[in-house]
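Technical note accompanying the year-one report. For the benefit of new consortium partners, we illustrate the data format agreed upon in the data management plan: each record pairs a sequence with a structure-token string. No post-processing was applied to the example shown here.
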Amino acid sequence: MSSALTLAELLHKLDGGNRLLLPSARAARELRSAFDAHQRALGHAAWEPAAALSWQQWSSGLWSDLIVAGAESRLLLNAAQEHSLWREIIRDDASHRSLGSLDTLAELAQSAWSLAAAYNATANLRGAGLHHDSRIFSQWAAEFSKRCTASGCLSSALLEDALRQHITSGALPPPETLQLAGFDDLIPAQDSLLKTLQERGTAIERHELAAEPGAEQFRSAVIAANPREELQFAARWVRRYLDTHRDSHPRVAILLPNLGEDQADLESALREVLAPELQSITADLATAPWESSATTPLASLHMISSALDLAHWTLGPLSIERISALLLSPYLGHSEERDALAHLDARTLRRQTLLRPEIDIAGLLSLLSSRDPETPPLAPWLRDVASLTQRAASIKTATFADWMEHVRALLAAALWSGADATRTLTATEFEAARAWDSVLDLVSTLDFSGRRVGFSTALDALDLQAQRTLFAPPSTHAPVQIMSVAEAEGCIFDAVVFVRATDENWPAPQRPHPLLPWGLQRSLAMPGTDATRITETCRAFTAGLLMRTGSILFTSAAENNDGKLRPSPLVSEFGLHQLSPADLLPPAPAKPHTEPETVLDDTPLPPLTSHVVKGGAAVLQAQAACGFRAFAQFRLHSSGLELRDLGLDARDSGNHVHLALETFWKQVKSQKQLRDSPHAEIDSILRNSIDTALQRHFTPRSPWDKAYLDLQRRRLHKLLKDWLKLELERGPFEVIDAEHKATLPVGPLDLDLRLDRMDRVGNAEDVVLVDYKTSSANPKDWESDRPDEPQLPLYALYPSPSETIKAVAFATIRPGKQMKWSGYQGEEGILPKARDNNRDLNLLIEEWRITLTQLAQDFADGRAFVDPKDYPGTCKYCDQRLLCRLDPATLREPDDDVATEGNDG
């Protein structure tokens, strides 16, 4: 018996106490929500809940009735228990290695079993496999059935068959009537159960869904120029529909065949058209007039990942990045500690110079204990977690339930998820916490097998279930619902927009299951085996959608980046004419153009409070690059977030080279001593100098630290040993100063300098200035009125009038061919291989004096114009881009696949 019911008629049936079965949990939830809204509209203060159930809820309820009545004692396996059982079977079979990982194969086998059960084909698996994979699966399936029988369990995929057997035996009384609404199609297992109920006297009523009589009948299909314009048009059409039906509070569905791929682009269009006020990054998207049914793995939520990371941390070290995320997580500890923990993360944890990619709880507590003892204790919850960890370390094995209680205790100690009373969870966070609690309970049910496991095994199971559990934020009952096509089955909306309705997406593509025999799938018309069957299923869904929806719009694009597109043939079958967007809506209004306002930036800056400026040569280097950069960095004290790699970065390595050479030349004072001393003595001095440099910065605390320092020690020894060979290629010299600190007046500024090295050559008054470089260096960086490297030119202003500068040089200490001397000399022979770099140094130094004095004067005068020396290269890595008025978009790297115009010649 079949009839068509409108939403009002469905609500009337529910009001009369009838039970309705719907094809999905979403459809049942939507109908119950509509029933509650109807009761409130009638002015009722209380009412009986609507008996609108999904098929799965109804069948599980029947099984519970059998348990209560004593007619059944088997355990109905949940998804986690079935996965665990499949995993054990596959793990015990060596042949699985040819197919894939354990968890992936377990999921694949579980889905194959469910599909076979849905088509009443589990008994046909043995002997039906004709290829390697299906034969292996048939063996797994036989073992799965054997273990279920032995342990008194029932696969949830076989629930319909088990219920049918109980109805046949009389253990389960059949209901007098059973009403189904909105089912476009039934799988064979469901159909078999319904037939058995009919044979036992149950009156089965199947209801199609229909739009309200007299509802607006709008049927159309639109072809837009491209996918972006298609989504823009769909959003504008939805906006017009909501505006014209505002009084009736309409509900609109937007169906996306590829929800995961197109959702972000669709929401961008909806934000622009429906709610432009939500364009701000600070806007609360919970107020959006749309919501999506898209789900994400529970484990991907920050709230849940912090809980999982904390549990993993108790087993062993975590990476620095994950520990930083834990320390800064709003879901752990007291909120008032967040700033102090952020400081600890930035100033202590991330500034460790040793290569510690991981650190355990004990290691972090050791870092905390090294802080000033007079400061209050930081993150006391860490000690509580460490205490629980120590207690659990003595437990080798326990039940899954016991370990999940241990996880709960860890999270409670860390004040996770609202345990900190100063913070209130949002609705989404509250639902996530509930879902997490359900996952802990789900893992606890793995005790059905009687196994006792270690915490690592239990935690792996928790990771898996948190990843497999799909989470959707709580519904806001927004007027616009974004969903996949399959989710629309059994749902009634006032209007539907079916976007991306091309022949590629509709009929929806399907594939046969890789573990089931092709012949078996083909004989039973399983999904993906019969193109005609797929088309008929999609045609029936389209017909039902048209029947239960007053206004419906199909949209597609004429072409995309891959070429021309064709609209779905099913759309034209139902007499929907293809139109252009202009046939339905006027063109979108042009965005208002705002003329830029020019404001003269001529406000003078206040004078410097002191002629002593911290920063040394970097002040003039920044002023030469861009006046605004120097102003922001050295007068506003604006700096970028310091980013560090694991271990020693380039700056650390450079500092160690400077310090090692400083120590070395304090003992080996001249080239003659370097040449004449025994090799073993020079090597010993070099090694001791390297040890002094490394030990000044850190002390190893673990075997890992010692091994890493030993590696750095060997690297520095080879590098500096090679460099000393180049020192012997110069003319005679004596090192008279190294790493000398001084204050140098430059124009109106007093700048702090540290001269890397000064050598005496020839006469007592002749000197060479040396600037160590562990990165690339070029003497041309000293030139122009805006030098890129003003440090050595500043050094040249330091010597007294009685001293004569014979050369200024970069000592580039880098491995391989990049290791060299480079610079300018007053006469040949001062620098090795520098015959082409002879310059009049007196004239050059005077030019530098004028240039550097002008830069110092510009800085003191507040010449802070945004004037990069080499735009956009100067701006690319500038820390002041957030304060600067230049457009950062101009600094983006060009796409590789975008052709650039240029001259052929």
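Partners are asked to follow this layout when depositing records. The radius of gyration is 38 Å.
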